Protein backbone atom coordinates (compact mmCIF):
# COMPACT_ATOMS: atom_id res chain seq x y z
CA UNK A 1 0.00 0.00 0.00
CA UNK A 2 1.79 3.15 -1.15
CA UNK A 3 1.68 6.54 0.53
CA UNK A 4 0.04 7.95 -2.59
CA UNK A 5 -2.73 5.35 -2.41
CA UNK A 6 -3.31 6.14 1.27
CA UNK A 7 -3.38 9.86 0.55
CA UNK A 8 -5.96 9.27 -2.20
CA UNK A 9 -8.05 7.10 0.12
CA UNK A 10 -8.09 9.78 2.81
CA UNK A 11 -9.05 12.37 0.25
CA UNK A 12 -11.96 10.15 -0.88
CA UNK A 13 -13.13 9.70 2.71
CA UNK A 14 -13.00 13.46 3.33
CA UNK A 15 -15.02 13.90 0.15
CA UNK A 16 -17.67 11.39 1.30
CA UNK A 17 -17.82 13.13 4.69
CA UNK A 18 -18.30 16.55 3.07
CA UNK A 19 -20.96 15.35 0.64
CA UNK A 20 -22.82 13.46 3.38
CA UNK A 21 -23.08 16.67 5.42
CA UNK A 22 -25.10 18.18 2.60
CA UNK A 23 -27.81 15.56 3.25
CA UNK A 24 -30.08 16.70 6.06
CA UNK A 25 -32.22 13.60 6.61
CA UNK A 26 -30.43 11.07 8.90
CA UNK A 27 -31.72 8.05 6.97
CA UNK A 28 -30.75 9.46 3.56
CA UNK A 29 -27.38 10.36 5.04
CA UNK A 30 -26.87 6.80 6.30
CA UNK A 31 -27.91 5.39 2.92
CA UNK A 32 -25.46 7.69 1.15
CA UNK A 33 -22.57 6.98 3.51
CA UNK A 34 -23.12 3.21 3.39
CA UNK A 35 -23.40 3.14 -0.39
CA UNK A 36 -20.20 5.14 -0.74
CA UNK A 37 -18.31 3.13 1.86
CA UNK A 38 -19.21 -0.22 0.27
CA UNK A 39 -16.31 0.08 -2.15
CA UNK A 40 -13.86 1.81 0.19
CA UNK A 41 -11.05 0.45 2.28
CA UNK A 42 -10.26 2.41 5.42
CA UNK A 43 -6.70 3.76 5.41
CA UNK A 44 -4.84 2.37 8.41
CA UNK A 45 -2.80 4.70 10.60
CA UNK A 46 0.97 4.54 10.67
CA UNK A 47 1.23 3.72 6.95
CA UNK A 48 2.87 6.93 5.72
CA UNK A 49 6.17 7.22 3.87
CA UNK A 50 8.60 4.37 4.80
CA UNK A 51 10.89 6.87 6.59
CA UNK A 52 13.12 4.32 8.31
CA UNK A 53 13.60 2.30 5.15
CA UNK A 54 14.59 5.42 3.15
CA UNK A 55 16.92 6.64 5.93
CA UNK A 56 18.48 3.17 6.13
CA UNK A 57 19.08 3.07 2.37
CA UNK A 58 20.70 6.53 2.43
CA UNK A 59 22.92 5.54 5.38
CA UNK A 60 24.04 2.36 3.57
CA UNK A 61 24.80 4.36 0.41
CA UNK A 62 26.83 6.97 2.34
CA UNK A 63 28.68 4.21 4.21
CA UNK A 64 29.53 2.42 0.96
CA UNK A 65 30.71 5.68 -0.64
CA UNK A 66 32.92 6.48 2.37
CA UNK A 67 34.39 2.96 2.31
CA UNK A 68 35.19 3.20 -1.41
CA UNK A 69 36.73 6.63 -0.88
CA UNK A 70 38.94 5.29 1.96
CA UNK A 71 40.08 2.26 -0.14
CA UNK A 72 41.15 4.53 -2.99
CA UNK B 1 -52.02 -0.50 -0.94
CA UNK B 2 -53.97 0.44 2.19
CA UNK B 3 -52.31 2.04 5.23
CA UNK B 4 -52.53 -1.17 7.25
CA UNK B 5 -51.03 -3.22 4.44
CA UNK B 6 -48.24 -0.69 3.95
CA UNK B 7 -47.52 -0.68 7.68
CA UNK B 8 -47.35 -4.47 7.79
CA UNK B 9 -44.68 -4.53 5.11
CA UNK B 10 -42.39 -1.83 6.57
CA UNK B 11 -39.08 -3.01 8.00
CA UNK B 12 -38.57 -3.42 11.76
CA UNK B 13 -35.69 -3.01 14.19
CA UNK B 14 -35.40 -5.39 17.12
CA UNK B 15 -33.17 -4.95 20.14
CA UNK B 16 -32.73 -8.39 21.69
CA UNK B 17 -31.36 -7.38 25.07
CA UNK B 18 -30.60 -9.48 28.12
CA UNK B 19 -33.10 -7.48 30.17
CA UNK B 20 -35.61 -6.14 27.63
CA UNK B 21 -36.62 -6.83 24.06
CA UNK B 22 -37.57 -3.68 22.17
CA UNK B 23 -39.13 -3.39 18.73
CA UNK B 24 -38.93 -0.21 16.65
CA UNK B 25 -41.45 0.49 13.93
CA UNK B 26 -41.30 3.17 11.30
CA UNK B 27 -44.60 5.02 11.38
CA UNK B 28 -44.38 7.18 8.27
CA UNK B 29 -42.15 8.61 5.62
CA UNK B 30 -40.94 11.30 8.06
CA UNK B 31 -39.21 8.45 9.92
CA UNK B 32 -41.13 8.81 13.16
CA UNK B 33 -40.50 5.62 15.12
CA UNK B 34 -42.72 3.88 17.63
CA UNK B 35 -41.26 1.59 20.26
CA UNK B 36 -42.71 -1.29 22.22
CA UNK B 37 -40.87 -3.39 24.77
CA UNK B 38 -41.27 -6.44 26.98
CA UNK B 39 -39.18 -7.56 29.92
CA UNK B 40 -37.02 -10.50 28.84
CA UNK B 41 -37.90 -12.60 31.87
CA UNK B 42 -40.38 -15.18 33.07
CA UNK B 43 -41.63 -17.08 36.08
CA UNK B 44 -43.14 -20.54 36.20
CA UNK B 45 -45.89 -22.07 38.31
CA UNK B 46 -47.37 -25.57 38.39
CA UNK B 47 -50.12 -26.06 35.83
CA UNK B 48 -53.70 -26.15 37.00
CA UNK B 49 -56.92 -25.35 35.15
CA UNK B 50 -57.87 -22.87 37.87
CA UNK B 51 -54.57 -20.96 37.67
CA UNK B 52 -54.75 -20.88 33.88
CA UNK B 53 -58.30 -19.55 33.85
CA UNK B 54 -57.30 -16.89 36.42
CA UNK B 55 -54.39 -15.77 34.24
CA UNK B 56 -56.65 -15.69 31.18
CA UNK B 57 -59.29 -13.67 33.01
CA UNK B 58 -56.67 -11.14 34.17
CA UNK B 59 -55.21 -10.88 30.66
CA UNK B 60 -51.78 -12.08 31.83
CA UNK B 61 -49.36 -13.04 29.05
CA UNK B 62 -48.60 -16.74 29.61
CA UNK B 63 -48.03 -20.07 27.89
CA UNK B 64 -48.03 -23.72 28.91
CA UNK B 65 -44.70 -25.52 28.57
CA UNK B 66 -44.35 -29.11 29.72
CA UNK B 67 -46.82 -29.13 32.61
CA UNK B 68 -45.94 -25.63 33.79
CA UNK B 69 -47.59 -22.27 33.39
CA UNK B 70 -44.98 -19.79 32.20
CA UNK B 71 -45.71 -16.10 32.68
CA UNK B 72 -43.43 -14.07 30.41
CA UNK B 73 -42.62 -10.45 29.65
CA UNK B 74 -43.72 -7.46 31.75
CA UNK B 75 -46.27 -9.55 33.65
CA UNK B 76 -43.46 -11.75 35.03
CA UNK B 77 -42.12 -8.75 36.98
CA UNK B 78 -45.52 -8.10 38.58
CA UNK B 79 -45.84 -11.74 39.64
CA UNK B 80 -42.27 -11.85 40.96
CA UNK B 81 -42.97 -8.85 43.19
CA UNK B 82 -46.23 -10.34 44.47
CA UNK B 83 -44.68 -13.73 45.29
CA UNK B 84 -41.31 -12.28 46.37
CA UNK B 85 -39.33 -14.49 43.99
CA UNK B 86 -36.62 -13.82 41.42
CA UNK B 87 -37.68 -13.73 37.79
CA UNK B 88 -35.91 -16.28 35.59
CA UNK B 89 -33.95 -15.03 32.59
CA UNK B 90 -33.87 -16.59 29.10
CA UNK B 91 -30.67 -14.68 28.34
CA UNK B 92 -27.48 -14.12 30.27
CA UNK B 93 -24.43 -12.03 29.31
CA UNK B 94 -26.01 -11.04 25.99
CA UNK B 95 -26.79 -14.56 24.71
CA UNK B 96 -29.28 -17.38 25.33
CA UNK B 97 -28.96 -18.69 28.86
CA UNK B 98 -27.44 -22.22 28.62
CA UNK B 99 -28.66 -23.08 32.15
CA UNK B 100 -32.28 -22.33 31.33
CA UNK B 101 -34.30 -25.07 29.56
CA UNK B 102 -37.15 -22.63 28.83
CA UNK B 103 -34.91 -20.01 27.19
CA UNK B 104 -35.79 -20.63 23.55
CA UNK B 105 -39.59 -21.09 23.92
CA UNK B 106 -39.77 -17.99 26.15
CA UNK B 107 -37.77 -15.91 23.66
CA UNK B 108 -40.01 -17.16 20.85
CA UNK B 109 -43.08 -16.25 22.84
CA UNK B 110 -41.91 -12.70 23.68
CA UNK B 111 -40.58 -11.97 20.17
CA UNK B 112 -43.79 -13.27 18.58
CA UNK B 113 -45.85 -11.08 20.89
CA UNK B 114 -43.80 -8.00 19.98
CA UNK B 115 -43.33 -8.34 16.22
CA UNK B 116 -46.18 -10.69 15.24
CA UNK B 117 -46.13 -12.51 11.92
CA UNK B 118 -44.57 -10.71 8.96
CA UNK B 119 -47.50 -9.31 7.00
CA UNK B 120 -45.64 -9.58 3.69
CA UNK B 121 -43.25 -12.35 2.75
CA UNK B 122 -39.61 -11.38 3.18
CA UNK B 123 -40.37 -8.36 5.36
CA UNK B 124 -37.03 -7.04 6.60
CA UNK B 125 -36.03 -7.02 10.24
CA UNK B 126 -32.65 -6.21 11.76
CA UNK B 127 -32.00 -7.66 15.20
CA UNK B 128 -29.19 -6.81 17.59
CA UNK B 129 -26.49 -9.28 18.55
CA UNK B 130 -23.69 -8.80 21.09
CA UNK B 131 -20.08 -8.27 20.14
CA UNK B 132 -17.58 -10.91 21.29
CA UNK B 133 -15.94 -10.31 24.65
CA UNK B 134 -12.20 -9.73 24.56
CA UNK B 135 -11.54 -13.34 25.58
CA UNK B 136 -13.93 -14.58 22.84
CA UNK B 137 -17.48 -15.91 23.06
CA UNK B 138 -18.44 -18.97 20.99
CA UNK B 139 -22.09 -18.83 22.21
CA UNK B 140 -22.83 -15.81 20.01
CA UNK B 141 -23.08 -17.93 16.83
CA UNK B 142 -25.72 -20.21 18.42
CA UNK B 143 -27.61 -17.23 19.84
CA UNK B 144 -27.62 -15.43 16.48
CA UNK B 145 -28.77 -18.52 14.58
CA UNK B 146 -31.55 -19.19 17.12
CA UNK B 147 -33.01 -15.66 16.95
CA UNK B 148 -32.70 -15.68 13.16
CA UNK B 149 -34.60 -18.99 13.08
CA UNK B 150 -37.42 -17.62 15.28
CA UNK B 151 -37.79 -14.57 13.02
CA UNK B 152 -37.59 -16.67 9.87
CA UNK B 153 -40.41 -18.88 11.16
CA UNK B 154 -42.49 -15.72 11.57
CA UNK B 155 -41.88 -14.92 7.89
CA UNK B 156 -39.21 -12.23 8.26
CA UNK B 157 -35.99 -11.80 6.36
CA UNK B 158 -33.79 -11.31 9.41
CA UNK B 159 -30.33 -9.76 9.48
CA UNK B 160 -28.13 -9.36 12.56
CA UNK B 161 -26.50 -6.07 13.52
CA UNK B 162 -24.01 -5.64 16.32
CA UNK B 163 -25.44 -3.67 19.20
CA UNK B 164 -22.69 -1.03 19.32
CA UNK B 165 -23.05 -0.38 15.58
CA UNK B 166 -26.82 -0.03 16.02
CA UNK B 167 -26.14 2.72 18.59
CA UNK B 168 -23.86 4.46 16.08
CA UNK B 169 -26.63 4.28 13.43
CA UNK B 170 -29.28 5.46 15.87
CA UNK B 171 -27.39 8.35 17.43
CA UNK B 172 -24.55 9.62 15.27
CA UNK B 173 -26.03 11.14 12.14
CA UNK B 174 -24.48 14.51 13.09
CA UNK B 175 -20.96 13.05 12.84
CA UNK B 176 -21.76 11.07 9.66
CA UNK B 177 -21.86 7.83 11.64
CA UNK B 178 -18.29 8.22 12.84
CA UNK B 179 -17.75 7.73 16.56
CA UNK B 180 -17.92 5.32 19.46
CA UNK B 181 -21.32 3.85 20.30
CA UNK B 182 -21.64 2.14 23.67
CA UNK B 183 -24.66 0.20 24.80
CA UNK B 184 -24.58 -0.52 28.53
CA UNK B 185 -27.28 -3.08 29.04
CA UNK B 186 -27.84 -5.81 31.59
CA UNK B 187 -25.53 -8.53 30.45
CA UNK B 188 -22.80 -6.67 28.60
CA UNK B 189 -21.47 -3.27 27.65
CA UNK B 190 -21.19 -3.41 23.84
CA UNK B 191 -18.75 -1.03 22.19
CA UNK B 192 -18.29 -0.12 18.51
CA UNK B 193 -15.92 2.37 16.94
CA UNK B 194 -17.21 3.16 13.45
CA UNK B 195 -15.82 5.38 10.72
CA UNK B 196 -18.41 6.64 8.23
CA UNK B 197 -20.74 3.77 9.25
CA UNK B 198 -18.05 1.08 8.83
CA UNK B 199 -17.36 -0.80 12.10
CA UNK B 200 -13.65 -0.82 12.89
CA UNK B 201 -13.54 -2.09 16.47
CA UNK B 202 -16.28 -4.18 18.09
CA UNK B 203 -16.04 -5.69 21.51
CA UNK B 204 -18.03 -6.28 24.68
CA UNK B 205 -17.22 -5.96 28.35
CA UNK B 206 -18.88 -8.67 30.47
CA UNK B 207 -19.68 -6.31 33.36
CA UNK B 208 -22.94 -4.41 33.19
CA UNK B 209 -26.29 -4.04 34.97
CA UNK B 210 -26.64 -7.67 36.07
CA UNK B 211 -23.16 -7.62 37.56
CA UNK B 212 -24.12 -4.54 39.63
CA UNK B 213 -27.41 -6.12 40.78
CA UNK B 214 -25.88 -9.49 41.69
CA UNK B 215 -22.87 -8.11 43.51
CA UNK B 216 -24.90 -5.50 45.39
CA UNK B 217 -27.47 -8.16 46.31
CA UNK B 218 -24.72 -10.49 47.56
CA UNK B 219 -23.23 -7.91 49.92
CA UNK B 220 -26.55 -6.56 51.23
CA UNK B 221 -28.48 -9.83 51.47
CA UNK B 222 -31.29 -8.51 49.26
CA UNK B 223 -32.78 -10.01 46.09
CA UNK B 224 -31.10 -8.99 42.83
CA UNK B 225 -34.54 -8.08 41.43
CA UNK B 226 -35.03 -5.62 44.30
CA UNK B 227 -31.62 -4.10 43.58
CA UNK B 228 -32.64 -3.60 39.98
CA UNK B 229 -35.91 -1.93 40.94
CA UNK B 230 -34.13 0.39 43.39
CA UNK B 231 -31.41 1.15 40.83
CA UNK B 232 -34.01 2.08 38.22
CA UNK B 233 -36.24 4.11 40.53
CA UNK B 234 -34.19 6.64 42.50
CA UNK B 235 -30.49 5.81 42.41
CA UNK B 236 -27.82 8.46 41.76
CA UNK B 237 -24.13 7.66 41.21
CA UNK B 238 -22.72 10.37 43.48
CA UNK B 239 -20.42 8.82 46.04
CA UNK B 240 -21.00 6.97 49.29
CA UNK B 241 -23.78 7.88 51.72
CA UNK B 242 -25.38 6.44 54.87
CA UNK B 243 -27.59 3.99 52.95
CA UNK B 244 -25.97 0.54 52.55
CA UNK B 245 -27.90 -0.40 49.39
CA UNK B 246 -27.00 2.91 47.73
CA UNK B 247 -23.38 2.40 48.78
CA UNK B 248 -23.23 -1.12 47.37
CA UNK B 249 -24.76 0.05 44.08
CA UNK B 250 -22.28 2.96 43.91
CA UNK B 251 -19.28 0.69 44.50
CA UNK B 252 -20.26 -1.74 41.73
CA UNK B 253 -21.33 1.05 39.35
CA UNK B 254 -17.84 2.52 39.76
CA UNK B 255 -16.34 -0.89 39.06
CA UNK B 256 -18.33 -1.20 35.80
CA UNK B 257 -17.44 2.35 34.72
CA UNK B 258 -13.71 1.86 35.42
CA UNK B 259 -13.64 -1.50 33.62
CA UNK B 260 -15.42 -0.04 30.59
CA UNK B 261 -13.14 3.02 30.38
CA UNK B 262 -9.99 0.92 30.79
CA UNK B 263 -11.10 -1.67 28.21
CA UNK B 264 -11.97 1.08 25.74
CA UNK B 265 -8.59 2.73 26.18
CA UNK B 266 -6.56 -0.48 26.01
CA UNK B 267 -8.46 -2.02 23.06
CA UNK B 268 -8.17 1.11 20.93
CA UNK B 269 -4.48 1.51 21.86
CA UNK B 270 -3.66 -2.08 20.96
CA UNK B 271 -5.53 -2.11 17.63
CA UNK B 272 -2.93 -2.39 14.89
CA UNK B 273 -4.91 -1.21 11.91
CA UNK B 274 -6.69 1.74 13.43
CA UNK B 275 -7.72 4.17 10.69
CA UNK B 276 -6.25 7.63 10.84
CA UNK B 277 -9.03 9.90 12.06
CA UNK B 278 -8.79 13.47 10.82
CA UNK B 279 -11.25 14.83 13.34
CA UNK B 280 -12.22 14.18 16.94
CA UNK B 281 -15.05 11.68 17.43
CA UNK B 282 -18.06 11.60 19.77
CA UNK B 283 -18.86 8.89 22.32
CA UNK B 284 -22.54 8.13 22.83
CA UNK B 285 -23.71 6.03 25.76
CA UNK B 286 -27.03 4.20 25.72
CA UNK B 287 -28.84 1.41 27.53
CA UNK B 288 -30.57 1.14 30.89
CA UNK B 289 -27.35 1.08 32.91
CA UNK B 290 -26.58 4.67 31.83
CA UNK B 291 -29.87 5.99 33.26
CA UNK B 292 -28.88 6.93 36.84
CA UNK B 293 -27.88 10.54 37.35
CA UNK B 294 -24.13 10.95 37.66
CA UNK B 295 -23.24 8.08 35.30
CA UNK B 296 -22.06 10.39 32.52
CA UNK B 297 -19.97 12.49 34.90
CA UNK B 298 -18.27 9.42 36.38
CA UNK B 299 -17.63 7.87 32.98
CA UNK B 300 -16.16 11.11 31.59
CA UNK B 301 -13.92 11.41 34.66
CA UNK B 302 -12.77 7.77 34.25
CA UNK B 303 -11.87 8.43 30.59
CA UNK B 304 -9.87 11.52 31.51
CA UNK B 305 -7.73 9.86 34.19
CA UNK B 306 -5.24 8.87 31.49
CA UNK B 307 -4.51 9.86 27.89
CA UNK B 308 -7.01 8.49 25.40
CA UNK B 309 -5.60 7.14 22.11
CA UNK B 310 -7.99 9.16 19.89
CA UNK B 311 -9.36 12.68 20.17
CA UNK B 312 -12.85 12.83 21.67
CA UNK B 313 -15.19 15.69 20.72
CA UNK B 314 -17.94 14.99 23.27
CA UNK B 315 -19.27 12.31 25.58
CA UNK B 316 -23.04 12.21 25.96
CA UNK B 317 -25.92 9.93 26.88
CA UNK B 318 -28.39 9.18 24.07
CA UNK B 319 -31.65 11.14 24.07
CA UNK B 320 -33.67 7.97 24.49
CA UNK B 321 -31.17 5.45 25.94
CA UNK B 322 -33.61 2.54 26.22
CA UNK B 323 -34.57 2.67 22.54
CA UNK B 324 -31.28 3.66 20.83
CA UNK B 325 -30.33 0.14 19.76
CA UNK B 326 -33.78 -0.63 18.35
CA UNK B 327 -33.78 2.70 16.49
CA UNK B 328 -30.35 1.94 15.00
CA UNK B 329 -31.49 -1.54 13.96
CA UNK B 330 -34.53 0.05 12.30
CA UNK B 331 -32.30 2.57 10.48
CA UNK B 332 -30.21 -0.33 9.16
CA UNK B 333 -33.37 -2.16 8.05
CA UNK B 334 -34.68 0.92 6.25
CA UNK B 335 -31.43 1.42 4.30
Descriptive account of the structure:
The complex is a heterodimer of chains A (72) and B (335). Chain A contains three helices and no strands. With 72 residues, chain A is mostly helical. Chain A has one domain. In chain A, helix 1 runs antiparallel to helix 2. Chain B is of the alpha/beta class. Chain B has two domains: 177 residues, 2-Layer Sandwich (Nucleotidyltransferase, domain 5), CATH 3.30.420.40; 144 residues, ATPase, nucleotide binding domain (Nucleotidyltransferase, domain 5, 2-Layer Sandwich). In chain B, a hairpin with a 4-residue loop joins strand 11 and strand 12. Classes of the chains: A mainly alpha (72), B alpha/beta (335). At the A-B interface, helix 1 and helix 2 of A face loops of B.
Describe the structure concisely:
With 72 residues, chain A is mainly α. Helices cover 72% and strands 0% of the residues of chain A. The longest helix of chain B is centred in the last third of the chain and has 27 residues, at 244-270.
Task: Give the overall form of chain B.
Answer: globular
For the largest interface, the chains and their residue counts are: A-B, 23 and 20 residues
Radius of gyration of chain B in whole Å, from Cα? 20 Å
Report the mean per-residue pLDDT of chain B as an integer. Answer: 87
Number of strand segments of chain B: 15
Mean pLDDT of chain A: 81
Structure keywords:
heterodimer, A: 3 helices, B: 335 residues, alpha/beta, Nucleotidyltransferase, domain 5, 2 domains, five-stranded mixed β-sheet, globular
Write the layout of secondary structure elements.
The complex is a heterodimer of chains A (72) and B (335).
Chain A: H1 3-21, H2 26-37, H3 51-71
Helix pairs in contact in A: 1-2
Chain B: H1 3-7, E1 12-16, E2 20-26, E3 33-39, E4 42-46, H2 49-58, E5 62-65, E6 68-72, H3 74-83, E7 91-92, E8 95-96, H4 103-115, E9 123-129, H5 139-153, E10 156-162, H6 163-171, E11 179-184, E12 189-195, E13 198-205, H7 209-220, H8 224-234, H9 244-270, E14 281-286, H10 295-303, E15 312-317, H11 324-334
Helix pairs in contact in B: 4-5, 6-11, 7-8, 7-9, 9-10
Amino acid sequence: MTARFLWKQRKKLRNIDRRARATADPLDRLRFVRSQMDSQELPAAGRGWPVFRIAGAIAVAIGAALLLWRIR
Amino acid sequence: MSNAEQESSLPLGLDVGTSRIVVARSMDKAHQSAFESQLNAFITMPYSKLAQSLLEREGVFHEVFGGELVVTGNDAQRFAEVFHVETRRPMVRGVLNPQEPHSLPVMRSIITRLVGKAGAAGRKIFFSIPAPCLEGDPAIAYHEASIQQILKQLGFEAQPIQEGLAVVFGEMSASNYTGIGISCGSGLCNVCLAVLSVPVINFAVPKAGDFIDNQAAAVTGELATRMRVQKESNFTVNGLSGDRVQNALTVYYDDVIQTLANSLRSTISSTQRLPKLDQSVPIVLSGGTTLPKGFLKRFTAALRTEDFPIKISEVRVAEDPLNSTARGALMAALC
